[in-house]
Amino acid sequence: MKGKALFAAGIAVGYVWGSKSWPEVYRRVRGGAQKVWKNPEVQENVHHATETVQESVPDILDNLYAAGKKLLEKAETMFPGILETKSGQQGNSSTGSSASASAPASTSTPPVRSDVVSDPALDDQTGSDWTDEGGAAPEGPATNTPAKP
After folding, report:
1. Which is it for the CA torsion 78, 84, 89, 92, positive or negative?
2. Residues with Cβ < 8 Å from 118, sequence gap 6 or more?
3. pLDDT single digits (tens) 22-63
4. DSSP-based three-state secondary structure for 147
5. For residue 110, which of 35, 68, 84, 142 sits 20 to 30 Å off, Cα-Cα?
């Protein structure tokens, strides 16, 4: 329905702009639109649609909340400790409980180290040859074009 309304609006705009006597056409189109909008049946339908939306929004929000909660519970079962924040983990370790302090450490991932062997962007040594990975060689860019003299 929205697509049809936008299409009709586009036709109306094109008709008005394409007309030589566009001010008169604009006044006629505007008058017709106002007449339709002020129609009691149209206003009654607008009122019913507004009430329906206002009544259904709380139900939609409740359904979204329930679905989000269910998703978080499933994520917690698949990835234990995913819902714990870093500040919460620090708080658990400062309580002195050895069981709670050791649990997050076992589920944490090891830190990621920089890899300069396979990433030419992280290599800052002069004279490195990265032609096999598409990078630049000491002689110039690694392309199939001949070097400029």
Report:
1. negative
2. 133
3. 788 788 888 998 999 999 999 999 999 999 989 988 899 999
4. coil
5. 68
